[in-house]
Structure formats: C-alpha cells, structure tokens
Amino acid sequence: MAGGSIPSTPLLKDELDIVIPTIRNLDFLEMWRPFFQQYHLIIVQDGDPSRTIKVPEGFDYELYNRNDINRILGPKASCISFKDSACRCFGYMVSKKKYIFTIDDDCFVAKDPSGKEINALEQHIKNLLSPSSPFFFNTLYDPYREGADFVRGYPFSLREGAPTAVSHGLWLNIPDYDAPTQLVKPLERNTRYVDAVLTIPKGTLFPMCGMNLAFNRELIGPAMYFGLMGDGQPIGRYDDMWAGWCTKVICDHLGLGVKTGLPYIWHSKASNPFVNLRKEYNGIYWQEEIIPFFQTAVLPKECTSVQKCYLELSKQVKAKLSKVDPYFDKLADAMVTWIEAWDELNPSGSAAAAVNGSAKK
C-alpha cells in the first residue's frame, strides 16, 4: 500500500460511519479524500442551524443541525450539548453501523518518520479487529501486531485476550493539553512518533480525547455519551474525558479492552488557552474528586449490558458527585435521558428504522 493509497475496497466499508462535529465548511476533507471517500459520513453541525455548511463534492454524507436534533429527539434533545464538540455523540446515536470513527475538522493527515501518509482509519480498524490484553500487561506492547507476540511469563490462559471496544489515537504537532499547560508551554509541539499500540490495563483510567477516536458501537456505544457541556453549562472541554472515564469503568466490568497509541493524526491548530481556561476552570477543580469516584466505582454483577451499567453509573454520580456541585445532579439526569433516547433510536432485537438527516448526498 504505497504512497498512502488504500485498497479499492476499504476495510469495513459498509460497517463503519465517520462522525464529524463542526461549525465550519469541511474543506479539510479534501486531504482525507483518499481515505474517507468510500465511507459514509455523519456530520453534526454545531452552532447556528440557519448557516449552510459546505461539504466537498463526492462524499456520501448525512448532515444534522440543531433543528434536526430537536426534531428527532424531541424533549430528549436536552441531553445533547450545544456549542461544544460534545454534540458529536448525536452522530453515534443515529448511526446504524457497527463501528464509529470520529475526527475533528482541524485534524489533517500525518506522516510517519519515513514520510509516508498515515491512513489513520485503517490503523483504527486494525486495532478494533484485534483483541486487547487488559488483564495482564505485555511488555512488548500489543502482542497481536505483526512482528510481536506474548513475552515469556505471560499466562497462556490469558493469551486469547478480550474484545477491543475502543481505539484511542494520538496527535502530532499540537498536543492535547489543558489550558494551564498550554499557557506555560505555548510553543511546545509533539514531534515524537512512537510506533506502538498498547492496551490500557484493567483498573486504570485514562484521559480520552475525542479528536482521533474509534470504537465498536455494538460493544460500547451507549456509554459514549459526551455529557452536558458548552452553552448553558458550567464546564466545557471535559466531554470526551467524561465519556472515557465512564467507558473504561464499563469496559473493565464487562471484560472489554481499550487500546491507545497508533494511529497519529496531524493536529493543525491550538485552541485559545484563555478561552479554554474559562471552559475548564471548574473541571480542573472537580476532576480531583471525579477521578477517585471513577477509580472506586463498582458495578454490580446484575449489570450485564452497557445500558444497565450506564444507568447504574448515573445513580452513583447522583449519589456521590452531587455534593461537589449541583451540576452533577443535572448531568446524572442527562445520562438517563441519553440512554432513553439511545434505546428509542436503537431498539434492541430489531433493525432500527433509519433516521433521515436534513441533507443527504
């Protein structure tokens, strides 16, 4: 596969949707055309729904704006954030595919150290289609990659691994830093390409970034709720991390794996650290109590589905985090609303009816 080209029939062509949240014209897709053009896109337009967003010719897409979200979800639309990239999770809900890849509109194609363009989507698919090893750490990283294996001392009973639910990719150029780190390191750029994928061990949380992320929607989709953030809320920029903490606790409970590392994308522009600080200010304080909450969260064995796990987590959020701030009471209610909306659009045991967006190509 020389020169960044992809096979004529790409992997999982009919089983994967690409979800993109945006407030602007999607010119960035031109760079991704060789990799994305044969896939279906779900574009979630944030901000003013009367604005027309331009999508380059030749892409197969659905476009949803705030009016569509209100029309499709009715009163339950209250659980979808406004003026925040968390709106992307609406795309997860309306997708009918087994897999999701989500990317931000300021993410471009990166190159590996040899100068070859990286097909990020293909690497995510490889991660998702191979098992994870959450129960025992393999010091040679991902033992399922070509040229690697389990090292001496790795229990044979655990070598079958666990199904991979999440593939978390990384970024060259602009790192995913919080506002205080951005302020003290304004010129720092990530130039380090590490050719590695590893499974995040069971019992270990991680800060999930939504700008280069893929997951198995059938295994973990209902937990991928990016919370109540942005307009009208006392916090922003914690949407993907909230989803990551909930998802990891549920993956650990259900015996599923989360991988991080490859693939890299090129993150082209840093957001304003002063604007970010306003959005993150509460979260920087709150996370000192949120993290211990998730580290000690236990789900009862009766929680055998993602939905049951998520509803149980929402109860624990209400019981234990509401004392931190009344916002968490509201967030816990939104978590319940999210699951109700998910189940309405994705009735179990039958093919869900297709939901039409405002624009199709």
Automatic annotation (TrEMBL):
InterPro entries membership: Nucleotide-diphossugar_trans (IPR029044), RGP (IPR004901), RGP_fam (IPR037595)
One Gene Ontology cellular component annotation held by this UniProt entry: cytosol
Keyword vocabulary terms for this entry: Cell wall biogenesis/degradation, Glycoprotein, Golgi apparatus, Isomerase
Keyword field contains Iron: no
Residues the record marks as site: Required for activity: 152, 159
Primary subcellular site in the record, as a coarse category: Golgi
Annotated function: Probable UDP-L-arabinose mutase involved in the biosynthesis of cell wall non-cellulosic polysaccharides.
Protein name, entry field: UDP-arabinopyranose mutase
Organism: Dioscorea zingiberensis
